[in-house]
Design goal:
Strand order of the largest sheet: 1-2
Number of domains: 1
Shape: elongated
Largest sheet: 2 strands, antiparallel
Structural class: mainly beta
Helix content: under 10%
Mean pLDDT: 86
Strand content: 25-35%
Distance between the termini: 24 Å
Low-confidence stretches: none
Number of helices: 0
């Protein structure tokens, strides 16, 4: 699966990471199709 990873200040990379396993009895697994990132969030 793809993940947006903050790698530094104002730096973000899209990486392939392993998919999570089966959710537990109190967990929910969501399929995200679209996200948005505000430019002001990248200062972290």
């Amino acid at each position: 699966m793809k993940a947006a990873i903050l790698t530094g200040i104002r730096e973000m990379e899209i990486r392939d990471i392993p998919a999570p396993g089966d959710p537990g009895s109190k967990d929910v697994l969501l399929k995200v199709e679209v996200i948005g990132v505000c430019g002001s969030d990248l200062h972290y």
